[in-house]
Design brief:
about 70 residues; mainly alpha; two-stranded antiparallel ribbon; 2 helices; about 60% helix; flat
Length: about 70
């Protein structure tokens, strides 16, 4: 943060950390800290990939919907 003059935002950092823990990419250890999981288990990897595919499908559907609406007008 000092190198790039980015202000510290502890609330944002805690939120991102929480999301990464929920995604299985970080592992908190009581009294020691939070650690990066070098290789998430296959179930987590599959779940993350499935979520990304769903997000892509939603984006494509929204684009198609917008095209249909513009052609109907």
């Amino acid at each position: 943060m000092d190198q790039y003059n980015v202000p510290s935002n502890l609330q944002l950092i805690r939120h991102v950390q929480s999301v990464l823990i929920d995604e299985g990419l970080l592992r908190p250890e009581q009294g020691r800290g939070v650690f990066v999981i070098a290789c998430p288990n296959q179930e987590e990897t599959d779940r993350i990939e499935a979520l990304e595919e769903i997000r892509d499908a939603i984006r494509r559907l929204r684009r198609a919907e917008a095209l249909l609406e513009s052609s109907a007008a």
